[in-house]
Amino acid sequence: MIYRDIMTRPLPFDVMPWGIGLSGVDVDRLPHRESVFALSNGHIGWRGLLDEGEPHGVPGSYLNGVFEEHPMPYAEGGYGYPESGQSVINVPNGQVIRLTVDDEPLDIREGTLHDHEQHLDFRAGTLERALTWTSPAGSAVRIRSTRIVSLAHRSVAAVRYEVEAVDDPITITLQSELVANEPLPEPHPDPRVQDVLETPLRSAGSFVFDSAATLVHETRNSGIGVAVSMDHLVSGATAEVRTAASDDLARTTIRARLAFGERLEVVKIVGHAWASGISAPGLRDRAEAAVADAMRDGWTGLLAAQRERLDDFWTCADVRVDGQPRLQQAVRFALFSVFQAAARAEQRSVPGKGLTGAGYAGHTFWDFEAYVLPVLTATAPDAAREALRWRHATLDHARDRARQLHLQGAAFAWRTIDGRESSGYWPASTAAFHINADIAAAVVHYVRATGDVEFERDAGLEILVETARLWQSLGCTDADGRFHIDGVTGPDEYTALYDDNVFTNLMARANLDAAADAARRHPDLARTLGVDDGEIGGWVRTAGAMHVPYDEERGVHPQAARFTELERWDFETDTPGDELLQERYPYVQLYRKQVLKQADLVLALFFCTDAFTVDEKARAFRYYEALTVRDSSLSAAIQAVVAAEVGHLGLAADYLAEAATIDLDDLHGNAEDGLHIASLGGIWTALVAGFGGMRDTADGLRFAPRLPEQLTGLAFGIRWQGRTLHLEIAPDATTYRVSAGEPMSIRHFGEPVELTSGADVTMPTPALPDPGERPTQPKGREPRPFAEALAE
Amino acid sequence: MIYRDIMTRPLPFDVMPWGIGLSGVDVDRLPHRESVFALSNGHIGWRGLLDEGEPHGVPGSYLNGVFEEHPMPYAEGGYGYPESGQSVINVPNGQVIRLTVDDEPLDIREGTLHDHEQHLDFRAGTLERALTWTSPAGSAVRIRSTRIVSLAHRSVAAVRYEVEAVDDPITITLQSELVANEPLPEPHPDPRVQDVLETPLRSAGSFVFDSAATLVHETRNSGIGVAVSMDHLVSGATAEVRTAASDDLARTTIRARLAFGERLEVVKIVGHAWASGISAPGLRDRAEAAVADAMRDGWTGLLAAQRERLDDFWTCADVRVDGQPRLQQAVRFALFSVFQAAARAEQRSVPGKGLTGAGYAGHTFWDFEAYVLPVLTATAPDAAREALRWRHATLDHARDRARQLHLQGAAFAWRTIDGRESSGYWPASTAAFHINADIAAAVVHYVRATGDVEFERDAGLEILVETARLWQSLGCTDADGRFHIDGVTGPDEYTALYDDNVFTNLMARANLDAAADAARRHPDLARTLGVDDGEIGGWVRTAGAMHVPYDEERGVHPQAARFTELERWDFETDTPGDELLQERYPYVQLYRKQVLKQADLVLALFFCTDAFTVDEKARAFRYYEALTVRDSSLSAAIQAVVAAEVGHLGLAADYLAEAATIDLDDLHGNAEDGLHIASLGGIWTALVAGFGGMRDTADGLRFAPRLPEQLTGLAFGIRWQGRTLHLEIAPDATTYRVSAGEPMSIRHFGEPVELTSGADVTMPTPALPDPGERPTQPKGREPRPFAEALAE
């Protein structure tokens, strides 16, 4: 059986410039493939399940913002611990189209699978599938399906499903379904949570009309109403169509007799609606209206609109990588994934996994603002704005949280779906106050890159003011007038509750200065927020007094006060192996030693670039390289950026290759829970900020483009205040072009360059100063060489 | 109704020199009274429930070591988090004797309660009760009951219950019961734990023979077998006796007709047995053997043996306080409670609440070795030895835990019943490694005070060696050769995960030195533990290199590195009120500011007395006084000791008064969960180490007795290497006497004094140097003045 043959080979993805292909099926790897082949518009997420529903890895159909609440269990509770948790749940699954061929259900594990192809198309925004199958009884069919999650119609996903009789005439039955409360393969480890999440939806009605059906549900605890509706366009062969629905299942049955070569085509349009406090009929109407709207456009119209949206995105966003097809594929996959995660999120959070899986319970974290927003700001600024507006909309929760913590201003949730804190381990969440400065930095960066004054006035200023207030109340001034922020956790999750974390202090300093600047720019609005000159002066004084510890003896900035004096992790004895350190060592050991899960001070070298001299950067990078085990997917891309800046281009390339393969090669073994959206964003960052050397500071936009030997060329575009700035980087020179708009100034290796619309300016690449020996990493944690990691 | 009248008055305990009396009943305060009136021998614990079972506060009948396992819930788990928790459970309750008078059940809330007296007798070791009651129908009885938990018969508790017809003839029915799986008033907040603890016992048989019955049970998860048996001696009136038993209830029904003035007397003997891996018949035999044994002694024999044991204890242990009857009562209650908690624990743990309540789930903590063992060592050294042998018996668990944490040697459980770690919040448990040094210090102190070389060879040496190994692996030596212990938590629970906690480092230093000394004293045994000269040398070097941070600028030892540089808690704004700070502020705020729950550096001033100069002590005490809120019951006694040492005798007296009333006046509002045994031990310590100035160091025993103005005299005895050393302290002089044995040397205010058996030596009290201004406490947390706290 060909099927068996396909199953035993490890199946690599096909390398394509504008998509990801896969020939054959590897049932054991379905969970991973479903994440890679997930489609989303930021509002709806459909994992890349096989149309017929089974076999499957992890069923997943999500609506951004639909979650269930559950109790948070603690062995020993404490003041301020969240009592209620939030978990993303599956909404009724509209992907399912089961097929019966002459009374035998199509299942790729039975009969003979002659071929099976999948293709995710980054420009069409579709997932295509084609297969030829002969049933155990000998009936043969060819199937082609194409699905989209519409970027144009936010509430609509659709499938075109085509069956062809390839041999003898056959009778086929399609069951196109909406399935609610599907059982999930892995129960939650906590039975109380499992109880809640097992069947989170309670029916509020099911409705049938001709070939259409709608299911309306409500979540049991969070009180969210969800309606999912479907309708069908049947063409090709003559078919008998019947629809029925019960509480958790709606089914349209399409029966036809196909002669040899004859085809049946079904287009299934699925509409979604959710809300709190809307009646079931109201929700039903919304979902059905979405379907009706898309039905009018028809399949061709949906496809055309999809491509149009993506063409618009790629025009500026595309990153061209010359000479490395797998890297080329990876960076476009990354951009596609980031765009999918946020394109139509529209004032909802963008989860760490986007809508590609239920990992991290569907929560969003600091890395969205720190890692993903820069990509969106440069390539899809409208989506960036909407995401920041979502954060702004959670300000009341953040203010409540600050008050609960006896702090001023706002303390944004470390992990959340709707803005309320849902983290269950405070040393690595509540104490990680830097999230507030990360959000503030994203605001500053967005406003600077877009000139969007309206946003700054509507939302940005308030975020800056409330976060500045937080820092002002969180730290304290010592007898020598230095401002300290003690007992907090920086980005590195293997170091918690230290004093004066340099990343946090520098980011807070920038936050305070930015709040002061913004308040001065908008004095009228600032007054309505209760800001007076005294408060602004306080922020400026605090920023100026911010203590930044420095270890004179070693000539490096400690990650936090005393950090460089801690015991160094013994990498000779305590060899990490493949497992995460945190899975083999207790926090009490990790926290009190010099060992890093991820870039922390090195992230500061990048984000707060002007706070360090070139030499300090080089020394610090070398120092922390030897201590960083990269147990976090957030690390490699940042290490790539800083490695490139300090001249270790080969090392930067290796880190880029690692970042580029984290999801496609499932390096962390958990891509089945969904893609690492922040790490995918990091691929872009490693190229643009790493080899492009882009830094966006108050002094303007700078570049220092320098290619590693593995790349013969690199080209990318960014949106900047209404313009598109395009860079074409060759080994010896970089050509800058502004597509439209006013002239603009940038710096190329520190040298001012004036760019006028339409005119190419080519600048030479200066010689690379000797960066010294390649920095070393902990034993066993050296990155794979670029060529090996990206070998085809 | 007199009953109602009694109920509305707040009822203070009667002040008695050798007991605690209570006239009347206050149903709302029953939970507190049950803890105060609890009887225990360290093996069995019976809360002071009313004989008839109801009304009750919190039913409690415990057997030391009988617990149930339950899952430990975590919102976010981590490596090394205990998966299984342990909770003490109620064993079948043998206290219950219900009475029906002319068909009306005795309930103090109904009918007329003419008088109700309870009396806990510290010398007899009994709880007596007397009441006169008229039923709603007018039948009047007088009841006298006396119960003991036998110190002589470890497995036996007994009740003598006497009913007298005080008016007309009456018919009475007594139901003497064993009740298993009694419902508890407050469900556990975690439903998974509640499920386990609701009916933890599964019947393994019930047996009846004449007036005797036995229930055998097994715990569902921990697999512990429990047998409780009872038999009865009935005298006085003629009575009809029947016994029956089912799974969870055994009942002996005694029916009699009493003429006016006639009495029925029932002596109920209850025997207990528990074990793992013993058959139900085997357990039954053990429990019934215990009953048979006690029946032979009879009630009078039981009482006599009880008094004999207590006479023996009090001979040396009594502390006489002149001029302060309430303090006198409190200190004897404290000694009685400590003795009850440990007397017959015999290689089982002594829980934080003893066996007086289910608070802290029946776990033992570091404060047993740090606070309770010194009292036992001085007053009941056999009990001290047994408790340390229990710790020794948990060494395998402690070694397993150390290995799990990737450390050498042994890491004793922070909270446990059977030696396995059961704490659910690692920053305040696993990270509090000082428990290991506290245990080691208790070993050193015990061996020094008793000269018990056999114990040192059997158990002590191994504890010292394995804890020394822990420190050696936990800390690290810096480039300057100083040894640091970073990222740990000291005694103060409002400060966690700091570097070089002074208490921890000093205690670890002593631990390392003590291990080296002991290994050199017993080289043969040390070799069998794998100790060679190199290892000993390593300990000595590490001890010598131990870093003890000192803040030169402020002239005080910081509680931990950088502590004195942290922001000071703003006591003006963040006023504590009555609530614990931890109930109103998150750890993230508490940990990173200068605010102390309890003595930490001040505990080091006491425990590591020679590591500080007199001036350093005075400055440090003053510094930390201003920061300590005493949200822990462990604090006041230690503050009393150090206040006395630095000359603030009035303040010391106030702290002593606070310690003395924590349980009797229920200052923390949680005495219903059981008594604070460590804090009770602290009352003794505040007197003996505070006003007696006793310090036990490697250089010998020292005293610096000095009375506050509130005391006209203080006398106490301690056991010292087979002798009894007695001190009689007057304001101007102290008289020392050694009761027996070899001469011994002590120091009186630094001056050597030779003491010979039987000869009084009187030494004058030197003039008190000016201690300066009385140190101040955080606003609202000043101790109540002595006179007010101990007003009668």
UniProtKB/TrEMBL annotation, chains A, B:
<feature type="domain" description="Glycoside hydrolase family 65 central catalytic">
    <location>
        <begin position="332"/>
        <end position="685"/>
    </location>
</feature>
<dbReference type="InterPro" id="IPR005195">
    <property type="entry name" value="Glyco_hydro_65_M"/>
</dbReference>
<dbReference type="Pfam" id="PF03633">
    <property type="entry name" value="Glyco_hydro_65C"/>
</dbReference>
<feature type="domain" description="Glycoside hydrolase family 65 N-terminal">
    <location>
        <begin position="24"/>
        <end position="274"/>
    </location>
</feature>
<dbReference type="Pfam" id="PF03632">
    <property type="entry name" value="Glyco_hydro_65m"/>
</dbReference>
<feature type="active site" description="Proton donor">
    <location>
        <position position="493"/>
    </location>
</feature>
<feature type="domain" description="Glycoside hydrolase family 65 C-terminal">
    <location>
        <begin position="694"/>
        <end position="755"/>
    </location>
</feature>
<dbReference type="Pfam" id="PF03636">
    <property type="entry name" value="Glyco_hydro_65N"/>
</dbReference>
<feature type="binding site">
    <location>
        <begin position="597"/>
        <end position="598"/>
    </location>
    <ligand>
        <name>substrate</name>
    </ligand>
</feature>
<dbReference type="GO" id="GO:0030246">
    <property type="term" value="F:carbohydrate binding"/>
</dbReference>
<dbReference type="InterPro" id="IPR008928">
    <property type="entry name" value="6-hairpin_glycosidase_sf"/>
</dbReference>
<dbReference type="InterPro" id="IPR011013">
    <property type="entry name" value="Gal_mutarotase_sf_dom"/>
</dbReference>
<dbReference type="InterPro" id="IPR017045">
    <property type="entry name" value="Malt_Pase/Glycosyl_Hdrlase"/>
</dbReference>
<feature type="region of interest" description="Disordered">
    <location>
        <begin position="755"/>
        <end position="792"/>
    </location>
</feature>
<keyword id="KW-0326">Glycosidase</keyword>
<dbReference type="InterPro" id="IPR037018">
    <property type="entry name" value="GH65_N"/>
</dbReference>
<dbReference type="InterPro" id="IPR005194">
    <property type="entry name" value="Glyco_hydro_65_C"/>
</dbReference>
<comment type="similarity">
    <text>Belongs to the glycosyl hydrolase 65 family.</text>
</comment>
<feature type="binding site">
    <location>
        <begin position="366"/>
        <end position="367"/>
    </location>
    <ligand>
        <name>substrate</name>
    </ligand>
</feature>
<dbReference type="InterPro" id="IPR012341">
    <property type="entry name" value="6hp_glycosidase-like_sf"/>
</dbReference>
<keyword id="KW-0378">Hydrolase</keyword>
<protein>
    <submittedName>
        <fullName>Kojibiose phosphorylase</fullName>
    </submittedName>
</protein>
<dbReference type="GO" id="GO:0016757">
    <property type="term" value="F:glycosyltransferase activity"/>
</dbReference>
<dbReference type="GO" id="GO:0004553">
    <property type="term" value="F:hydrolase activity, hydrolyzing O-glycosyl compounds"/>
</dbReference>
<dbReference type="GO" id="GO:0005975">
    <property type="term" value="P:carbohydrate metabolic process"/>
</dbReference>
<dbReference type="InterPro" id="IPR005196">
    <property type="entry name" value="Glyco_hydro_65_N"/>
</dbReference>
